[in-house]
Structure to design on (247 residues):
């Protein structure tokens, strides 16, 4: 069931690739993915619980490898457990991965950077990563770090919260009534349209080798965004330069 992931080019650690003939980074719907059952848990739990959840996730993934093409990387807040989960899932036969608890990672810039960079450094080149529940303004820097796709479910998730997602900001419509009396479905559609626009924007910048410019532009949109870029630059410049074209 493994989908072949073909890398076409790099812009920093970010990659333009192809899965089933479609360009990455791309938007994935859960309905089109065959995700292996997994033992999920909250992000901030005791290590013993996280270890149990990783063992169960690996067992379930192994039992369903013939029917599924995506596995979920568990491990809660413990990066070594997440790396172990990734490597064992690769050994089982998976090459597509969803990083669990993405919403929690977005609230902690240092942890977000360390998790993604650690996983990317340890992963096989043929493995691709999907980030769930992302805010749209984070999509460029997540791509820059090496994320290959995003779940469209976030458009629905934020519409339930009455939040409008734009390329630069998230607006709580209870506080900022940009659209008054908008239905949840219409709000979901607007969030989806903005996700699709940003993916096209990312592709255009990557083809022009200017993704870093877009990342820096977006870094000023939220404190979390600028913190993520500062931590990435300070702690992982070697990782960024590995695939960056020098002039």
């Amino acid at each position: 069931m493994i989908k072949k992931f073909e890398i076409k080019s790099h812009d920093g650690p970010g990659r333009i690739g192809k899965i089933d003939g479609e360009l990455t980074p791309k938007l994935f719907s859960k309905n089109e993915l065959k995700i292996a059952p997994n033992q999920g848990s909250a992000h901030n739990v005791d290590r013993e619980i996280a270890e149990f959840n990783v063992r169960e996730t690996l067992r379930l993934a192994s039992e369903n490898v013939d029917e599924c093409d995506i596995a979920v990387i568990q491990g809660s807040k413990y990066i070594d457990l997440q790396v172990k989960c990734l490597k064992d899932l690769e050994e089982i036969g998976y090459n597509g991965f969803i990083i669990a608890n993405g919403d929690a990672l977005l609230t902690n810039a240092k942890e977000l950077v360390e998790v993604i960079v650690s996983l990317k450094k340890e992963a096989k080149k043929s493995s691709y990563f999907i980030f769930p529940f992302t805010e749209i303004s984070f999509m460029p820097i997540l791509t820059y770090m090496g994320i290959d796709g995003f779940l469209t479910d976030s458009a629905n998730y934020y519409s339930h919260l009455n939040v409008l997602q734009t390329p630069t900001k998230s607006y709580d419509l209870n506080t900022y009534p940009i659209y008054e009396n908008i239905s949840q479905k219409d709000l979901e559609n607007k969030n989806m349209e903005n996700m699709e626009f940003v993916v096209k924007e990312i592709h255009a910048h990557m083809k022009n080798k200017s993704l870093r410019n877009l990342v820096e532009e977006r870094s000023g949109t939220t404190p979390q965004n600028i913190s993520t870029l500062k931590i990435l630059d300070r702690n992982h410049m070697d990782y960024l330069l590995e695939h960056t074209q020098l002039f």
In short: The chain has one domain: 5-241.
